[in-house]
Design brief:
The complex is a heterodimer of chains A (387) and B (599). Chain A is α/β, with parallel strands linked by helices and 387 residues long. Chain A contains 15 helices and 17 strands. Chain A has 2 domains: 257 residues, Alpha-Beta Barrel (TIM Barrel); 69 residues, Arc Repressor Mutant, subunit A (Orthogonal Bundle), CATH 1.10.10.920. In chain A, 40% of the residues lie in helices and 24% in strands. In chain A, helix 1 packs parallel to helix 2 and helix 2 runs parallel beside helix 4. Chain A is globular. Helices cover 24% and strands 34% of the residues of chain B. The chains are: A alpha/beta (387), B alpha+beta (599). Chains A and B meet through helix 9, helix 10, strand 12, helix 12 and helix 15 of A and helix 13 of B. Chain B: It is found in: Cell membrane. Chain B: GO terms for molecular function: GTP binding; GTPase activity; guanosine tetraphosphate binding; ribosome binding; translation elongation factor activity.
């Protein structure tokens, strides 16, 4: 019998928690460390790979994703050893996608060839802006020139590459963004992630905003205009959105990220990595120790970096699947949703959204429409059952 | 029983913050009525809200024994009355129970509107009045100028006003002497049949209803069988005593004395202020005229935020009503707000006090709808109906005309703010009746519709005068005017809780203001929402709330599943704090804020 996760596939997420500097908008698990004992970390990562592999044996691994932090600061040998261990632990898909997040600094780009030789076949470069003043405002330590250079090297080194931009920045006009996006598309390979700047609590930007600082952020209407302009420009350039913030030429989507959005299984390795893994027919949510030192000690002393493992109920699985599935063009398979939790969506709520044209249904597939996607949070809030 | 010549009964008249409660505290303290270790501020104000807001809501009494300079000991009975206009009626009744008043005026502030209203009641009650200038220790104090003002504005002799500082205790012995020497002693016949006035009553959880009485003739003892002539109720006196200010039992009360009794009376509603208390067997032949019960003039709906708390709210309201005969309530159903109560109050302060007590003492979150007044609807068939709630407005085809209550408002204001005050009154459909000057302060008297005042007039007055104006009013009866019911439609559906009565000439302006306010108060939805104000079927103002443009999480990857879903669930739960109307969620504050006028 097919288990539900098989609709999405199986991927491995590896978290490298260190950065050279912390960006003020970033709410990821990242740390600035003076000195990192790469051999200690290597043993810990390898031990965790073996632990997870023992629990989830004999499945085809579709993707590996090195995220962070700044994994491009990892020693390429460490990356190579990990990939080798992973390939030894699972049968891997022929077209396995192995992505590494990279910063455009010269230290990192200098290692691109070594990463390719270690087995990385896709990079995602954090460019964020094509404007030096804005890069400084975002707390980035690279320049536009370095960014362009990094994209060039990435494209000549790897088969596939992507880069990120952040829009709806302070004092950014619609015209500014349109111009910048066109410029970006001209140098894009096959994939782009375009994020609206989100101010998260607990970040430096969040603190500044709550103290009344961080002026000049666009209002909802301007942000909406920027979103629609983004769709139009990318569609025309042949990079339609296959997810809220992700654009790709057909067939060049991030397969790893699609595993999340298709609600497959993903195992998380490294400090603060989350997973959704099905063991004995039950889906679990897993989390590892968040603090790098704590994680390292736990792995070394107990042989297990995990500190949380919760069975995810069918009800909660349905909610997570819905939240993810409506982000992508695939949409949500209502039959599959019903299999996770019967009658999860109230028919009346669905009808209202259908009438408003925010979602569309064809057969058993429920999709967010172009109109519904920019207000997806409201759509999901409406579909989540009353509790 | 105390000899009549050694009794003095008095009240204190003052504007809020002019030091009434502090003076009362000093009088109690300096005569040793309360041991120093038991002393606390605002001794006579027992409710938290009274202490917090620095106001007196219920009348309180205290009996002070004072050894005067003439060598005799006198019994001084102070009735501490509410100062606020909402409780003016309570004040006027209490005034009838005493023979004199201390008029306390802040020597740095001068006479205020509230001082005036209360001192006129004292004059009407034939009181001997002793002016007392408080806060003379302040650098800004101008006792001579203020004494002059008292003479000019109030028209009483202030040449021998007592100068004090209630805060420091300066001049307090002079006040005590003035009470003994200048206030008249009560009259009465100890041998006549019992005739006592019911001054006030309140509910005590341990004792039941406690009745404050003033004996006019005859004597009353514990165990006596008494009858209240107005209500006809007959009771045996369980307990008789005086307040010092703690309850102290006493064997007998005679003419001129003030004290309390308990008599197994179940609720405050069974007692009528101003009623005549006499002996069941040997009754007085000359009962007191009695008072009209206080009538609520301001109405609003109180609804529980959480509809599951409706029964708790009913319980709270019933308990509060036991101790407050002037507060009325009836069940109300609103399409927007569900089940709640339409409540009647003596005024806005009374409303706020009750609301605060429900929220605080009973821990129930409330939605308060916009206050309204009682309109008189004259029907074509010649009958008249009272309208307490705009939502109940009958079909206009049967209505001949409407009348609204009007007030006479007295406002005292430094002349630099006079222009703003006149504009405010004019904007609220006021008619100027009088304007006089006392020094640099102007006193203006306006005839105003109560419905223009109940909502935010006092807030606006405070804001345009930076808090320097004082305000008081009295009801002046009903007058016909061109009044209409204005409805608000949100997404084409009428929201009953937002219906208001407005003057026809001001309807467009009010309607526009309300629609604009609501546009800001209602969050964007997934669809655009028309917000309209209408009279009958005619739309007089319209705004459109745009559909939500952008609300989507930019980044949502594997590690975000738990956190982002929780966030969405939390936001969804947050919407429960709003009221759903049709497909539109309206936040609670909209029901009140939409009606505030930022003139």
């Amino acid at each position: 019998m097919t288990e539900d996760w098989q609709h999405g596939g199986f991927g491995l997420y590896i978290h490298w928690p260190f950065c050279q500097a912390k960006c003020p908008y970033c709410d990821f698990n990242s740390h600035v460390a003076a000195k990192i004992d790469q051999s200690r970390w290597k043993s810990a990562y390898l031990a965790e790979i073996q632990r997870v592999a023992a629990e989830l044996p004999n499945r085809v691994l579709n993707t590996i994703y090195f995220g962070g932090g700044t994994p491009s600061l990892m020693d390429p040998d460490l990356v190579g050893d990990m990939i080798a261990a992973i390939r030894g632990a699972w049968p891997t898909a022929n077209d396995i996608e192995i992505t590494l997040e990279a910063n455009p600094g010269s230290v990192e780009t200098g290692r691109f060839a070594a990463f390719r030789d270690a087995g990385i076949n896709r990079v995602s470069v954090g460019i964020q802006a094509l404007n030096d003043a804005d890069l400084r405002a975002l707390g980035r330590i690279h320049s536009v020139a370095e960014a362009r250079k990094a994209i060039e090297i990435a494209q000549s080194t790897f088969d596939r590459s992507s880069f990120d931009l952040i829009y709806a920045r302070q004092n950014q006009s619609l015209a500014d963004w349109q111009a910048e996006l066109r410029e970006a598309l001209a140098m894009a390979a096959d994939h782009l992630s375009l994020y609206q700047l989100t101010i998260e609590d607990g970040t430096a930007f969040g603190d500044r905003l709550s103290r009344g600082g961080l002026r000049g952020l666009p209002d909802e209407d301007l942000a909406g205009d920027m979103y629609f302009a983004t769709q139009e420009i990318c569609d025309t350039a042949g990079y339609p959105a296959y997810e809220v913030s992700n654009h790709a030429a057909l067939g060049s989507e991030s397969r790893h990220n699609l595993i999340y959005w298709r609600y497959g299984d993903y195992a998380g390795i490294g400090p603060g990595a989350h997973g959704r893994v099905t063991v004995g027919g039950q889906k679990f949510a897993t989390e590892t120790h968040l603090a790098p030192g704590k994680w390292l000690n736990a792995v070394e002393e107990t042989g297990n970096g995990e500190n949380l493992r919760d069975a995810v109920s069918g009800f909660d699985q349905a909610g997570e699947y819905l939240m993810f599935g409506l982000r992508i063009l695939d949409g949500v398979d209502l039959k599959r949703l019903n299999g996770l939790y019967r009658d999860y969506i109230a028919p009346q709520k669905l009808l209202e959204l259908l009438e408003l044209g925010l979602v569309a249904r064809s057969g058993d597939t429920l999709r967010t429409t172009a109109k519904g996607r920019p207000v997806l949070n409201a759509v999901i809030r409406n579909l989540l059952p009353e509790v | 029983m105390t000899d009549l010549k050694h009794i003095r009964n008095f009240s204190i008249v003052a504007h809020i913050d002019h030091g009434k409660s502090t003076l009362a505290d000093r009088l109690i303290q300096m005569t040793g009525t309360v041991a120093a270790r038991d002393m606390q501020e605002q001794l006579l104000d027992s409710m938290d809200i009274e202490r917090e807001r620095g106001i007196t809501i219920k009348a309180n009494t205290v009996r002070i024994e004072y050894p005067a300079q003439d060598g005799d000991t006198y019994v001084l009975n102070l009735i501490d009355t509410p100062g606020h206009v909402d409780f003016a009626y309570e004040v006027s009744r209490s005034m009838q129970a005493v023979e004199g008043s201390l008029l306390v005026v802040d020597a740095s502030q001068g006479v205020e509107a509230q001082t005036l209203a209360n001192v006129y009641q004292a004059i009407e009650a034939d009181h001997e009045i002793v002016p007392v200038l408080n806060k003379v220790d302040l650098p800004a104090a101008e006792p001579e100028r203020v004494a002059e003002q008292i003479e000019d504005v109030i028209g009483i002799d202030a040449s021998d006003a007592v100068e004090i500082s209630a805060k420091t205790g300066l001049g307090i012995p002079d006040v005590l002497e003035a009470i003994v020497q200048r206030l008249p002693h009560p009259e009465g016949d100890a041998d006549a049949p019992l005739k006592a006035m019911l001054v006030d009553s309140y509910y005590d959880p341990y004792l039941g209803v406690v009745v404050i009485i003033r004996v006019l003739d005859g004597k009353i003892k514990k165990g006596d069988r008494i009858q209240m002539l107005g209500t006809g109720g007959k009771y045996p006196v369980d307990r008789l005593g005086v307040f010092r200010p703690k309850m102290q039992d006493i064997a007998e009360l005679g003419p001129g004395e003030i004290g309390f009794l308990t008599a197994s009376i179940k609720q405050v509603r069974d007692t009528r202020v101003g009623d005549t208390i006499t002996h069941e067997k040997k009754q007085t032949a000359t009962p007191l005229p009695g008072f009209k019960p206080a009538q609520p003039v301001v109405f609003c709906g109180l609804f529980p935020v959480d509809s599951a708390e409706f029964e708790d709210l009913r319980d709270a309201i019933e308990k509060l009503a036991l101790n407050d005969a002037s507060f009325s309530f009836e069940m109300e159903t609103s399409a927007a707000l569900g089940f709640g109560f339409r409540c009647g109050f003596l005024g806005l302060l009374h409303l706020e006090v009750i609301r605060d007590r429900i929220e605080r003492e009973y821990d129930i979150d409330l939605i308060t709808t916009a206050p309204s007044v009682i309109y008189h609807i004259h029907m074509k068939d010649g009958t008249m109906q009272e309208l307490h709630n705009p939502a109940d407005m009958p079909d206009l085809t049967h209505v001949d005309h409407l009348e609204e209550p009007r007030i006479k408002a007295t406002i005292m204001v430094p002349d630099e703010y006079l222009g703003d005050v006149l504009k405010l009154c004019q904007d609220r459909r006021g008619i100027q009746l009088d304007m006089t000057y006392a020094g640099t302060r102007a006193m203006v008297v306006y005839d105003l519709p109560l419905n223009e005042v109940v909502f935010d007039f006092y807030d606006r007055l405070k804001s345009v005068t930076k808090g320097y104006a004082s305000f008081d009013y009295q009801m002046e009866g009903y007058q016909t005017d061109n009044l209409v019911k204005m409805q608000v439609l949100v997404n084409d559906e009428p929201v009953d809780a937002l219906s208001t009565m407005v003057h026809r000439d001001r309807a467009e302006q009010r309607g526009r203001a309300m629609c604009e306010k609501l546009k800001d108060l209602i969050p964007r939805h997934m669809f655009k929402i028309p917000i309209q104000a209408a009279i009958g079927g005619k739309v007089i103002a319209r705004e459109t709330l745009s559909a939500m443009r952008k609300d989507v999480t930019a980044k949502c990857y594997g590690g975000d599943a738990t956190r982002k879903k929780k966030l969405l669930e939390k936001q969804k739960a947050g919407k429960k704090r709003m009221r759903q109307f049709g497909k539109v969620d309206i936040p609670q504050e909209a029901f009140i804020s939409a009606l505030k006028m930022d003139d």
